[in-house]
Amino acid sequence: MTTTDWDAAAESFDDEPDHGLHDPVVRGAWARRMETWLPTARSSVLDLGCGTGSLSLLVAGQGHRVTAVDRSPRMVERARAKLAGTGTEVLVGDAGRPPVGTQRFDVILARHTVWLLPDPAASLRHWFSLLRPGGRLLLIEGVWNGTGLSAARLTALLHAHTERVHHESLSGDSRLWGKDVDDERYALVARAEPPDRHSEVVDVHLILRRGPDVLLARRAGTGYADGLLHAPSGHAEDGEDVRAAVIRETAEEIGVELDPDELRVALVMQHRGPGGSPRMGWFFEADHDPARPPRNAEPDKCSELAWFPLDALPDDMVAYCRAGLDAYRAEQRFLIHWHEDADTVAYAPRGTRRAVPLPAASSPTGLLHHVELRVPGLAEAEEEWGWLLGRLGHVPYQRWSQGRSWRRGDSSVAVAADASGRSGEAREAPRAGSRLAFHVRDRATLDALAAGAPRHGWTLLPPDGRAYAGDSGPRTALLADTAGHEVELIAP
What we know:
- The protein is α/β, with parallel strands linked by helices.
- Helix content is 22%, strand content 31%.
- It is built from 11 helices and 25 strands.
- The chain has helices at residues 6-9, 17-20, 24-37, 54-61, 73-82, 120-129, 151-158, 242-254, 319-329, 378-391, 443-452, and strands at residues 44-48, 65-70, 89-92, 105-111, 131-144, 147-148, 165-169, 184-191, 201-210, 213-219, 229-230, 233-235, 264-272, 278-287, 302-309, 334-338, 355-357, 370-375, 395-400, 403-408, 411-417, 435-439, 459-460, 475-480, 486-491.
- The strands form 4 sheets. Strands 9, 10, 11, 12, 13, 14, 15, 16 and 17 form a 9-stranded mixed β-sheet that branches.
């Protein structure tokens, strides 16, 4: 709370470039911002802590009906003179409890006002009661020389009333202030959700793959989970489907224009943050194109873009995003991730796991359960098949005295020592002709597997009419293990 005598300050208040808006450059910068923050249709706007009415004048000039309130009679006097002829009503009163009776507004605007209030939480609660359903609360605040209200603190106060909070940093636009500034200045636009029906924010996330790596962004200046890594993400807008939303957010955040046919649904997750409301998250997968490298297109919201191995993700991540990527790697397609209020937003390696995978409806009839291969030597087979299957996404499953198995999803591959031979007797030569075929993600992965296979006991066989086909069709590689079993790897 400030002890400034606002009546005494009224005479020189407009001397500051961002107060009086006398400079056409400064006035134009604020006018353009207002056009993006306010509805396009003519709306009723309540300007709280209006000062001498400079922003009210801009808003009225854009066709909106304005009611302005300030506690300083001298400020109100100057505002009335400035706004004469615009139809604006200017009232003397407390911004925290404005004297507007039962009126409701489409927009409530407050610039550099919330930090002055003795009880900001109570004032925000009252302001939301003055908004029509779907209305907007536009707050322009900052921190100057250690005083003021940070975006993180104000966003936390708003989350008690709405999940829809849009943050814009204003520090980097010197045209707004008539000078360069290096402190925190920002705008928050909060939406009043309709109270009569449950609704959930739909968010979208991009899993951009570069072989075994995924792209993550480090949040900064957003007021939520700043400093933590997260996949490129955002919210679907009104009337926008989830695929269009992830295409738009990808372009806005990392500067990559995706075509719809490049996207694949990876995971659907309902999640709830600590103390927050439920959300529905759609995770999409796309492949990195070297011709379209990602870049940090929103440096005010992101401090870093980097690639990380999917099978060795960092710990400093947003918890539900980490859970989503872990589920994606395990090929789980539906997930609930429900935080308790005492949990942290950040991933806690030794914390309680909140992820609950949901099985998809399917009939197991006719699906492959397992394949068991007879081998003359278990040790050699374990080295050969353990390496190859591990690279193909299988994990160790069962281990017994005469065999080993690896599993992916509901199917497994096992190798077992051939029991037909006895001590001192020659083993029967393995029968030729058995072959397993596996999908491989892309040709680069296929080439890497083919190059590494001989070091793990595999023999690379010559083409048989399909193996290592030309560029016009699928590319394949044909391998054989010590026992004579063949594996065909097929990439698109």
